[in-house]
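Please think about what follows:
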Amino acid sequence: MKRQKLFLYVNPDFDTRFQSGISRLYQIFCKNSLCNLEIIDTEFLKTYVPEDSHPQILIIAGGDGTIHNVINSIPDEAFKGYLFGIIPGGTANEFARSLNIPISLCKSAELILNNEKIYYEHIGIINDEFKFATGILYGVASQVLQITPVIAKHLFGRSAFLIGFTKYLMQYWESFLIKRKEFIFNGNHFRTNYLLINNASLISKDLEKSDINLEKKNEFSVIYLHSRLKLLEIFKVMIKYHAHYRILQDHALAWKQMKEIKLEFEDEIELLLDGEQYKFISPMEIKFFKYPIAIITG
């Protein structure tokens, strides 16, 4: 009997973070379920094109940044041949949470083996070149993510970003108060030092269903802080955001949902795509990638 082949793309820190995590996956997929597990890298993904008629299961063991690396390595024509399984192994795991994928290694692996529910998720693409699964961050939020200590992320998960935010305030409070950028998106002008263009369903923020239009879940959500706010108001918003508490009802925020975005600004800016750092110049054309990706979900 031919054993089912599974591809595994794994974050370099996954094995340490999950205490021999790769060995545990081999135990689940190979010894217990008699699958053939093959570890692959980005170079392999750049050239391999699976058959459309027999979808190849590709397991991604890692967080949002790992998913980002995978979707930006796969040739466009190869997306239709993959069925993605996610083993959440990051700090925030926003993409996995938005699809109701268990954070537990064993439970998410079991979900992949059962393969009972498949969801077709749209991923975003910038200027027809840079793909993103979860979202785009600008300003204070992106800098907080970058300066949050890695050890804190491992110990406290998403709550570690509050440590990063406190560290940011202590180091950069002067620039935090005055450094705001002028943006134009789809003809709307605003100034902000916090911008999120979210792709993963806002349900991953633990919002009430009444807060969002579920019929528009395959639209980008543009969220930003108003420019004239007191420091304590901004601090409150950041706490609510990372506590995932009814953020969209806060008066300090503005947000809209839309399918395509033209984002314009002056000078070069630094953005985080799924937690990975990029620099862009204006304008940015943001839309959905032409192929939805098939994901095993909960």
Q: What stands out?
A: The chain has a mean pLDDT of 82. The longest helix spans residues 160-178. The longest strand covers residues 56-62. The chain has two domains: 5-124, 135-273.
